[in-house]
Amino acid sequence: MRIARALAARGIVAASIDYRLLGQAPRPSRRVGPLLPALLAAPLSAAIAAAVDDTLTATDYLRAHARGLGIDIRRLGLVGSSAGAITADRVAYVLDDHGIRGPRLRFAASLWGGLIVARRRDGAGSRRSSSSAGSPPCSPCPATPIRRSRSRSTTS
To answer: What is the b/e burial string over 105-134, where b = at least 16 CB atoms within 10 angstroms of the residue's CB?
Structure first.
């Protein structure tokens, strides 16, 4: 919430997403079903997929109600910290590798997060050579580096 308040203080519309957590034993919807086989077979995977699902639901809501909320939807972005950063990164950079349509984003910012991108079972999305074809389907692939911007702009 501190990040959202800081953004709002600068005139940037901010929404804090209250996504479901592991302790709530979340069940993601079919929309993010293609993401599940790429995750490890563990309860945490359902929570990761549910957080992505909840983020998609929230961005759908913001898009549908943009005019009434005073949002310029062409400037939509995601910012997250810790698990929220991991979720923002997945929504911004991973969904299309699994045939899931994500929101059109102008930016994504990861604060104190990380991203492990698993290779799809069919091998698509992997930067590995064909010599790794015998690797397990969830082998981590090198993540795309994110360039840091030194922009002094306060608009999103």
So the answer is: eeebbbeebebebbbbeeeeebeeeeeeee
Query: 78-103, pLDDT tens digit by residue?
Result: 998 888 988 999 999 989 999 999 99
d(CA 156, CA 151): 11
| Secondary structure (DSSP) of 46-103 | HHHHHHHHHHHHHHHHHHHTHHHHT--GGG-EEEEETHHHHHHHHHHHTGGGGT----
Contact 85, 111 (CB under 8 A): yes
Report which of 74, 75, 71, 113 is spatially closest to residue 94, judged by C-alpha positions: 113
Rounded CA Rg of the chain:
16
Q: What is the pLDDT of residues 1-34, one digit of tens each?
A: 788 888 888 888 888 888 998 999 999 999 999 9
Residue 45, classed as helix, strand or coil, is helix
Q: What is the pTM of this model?
A: 0.70
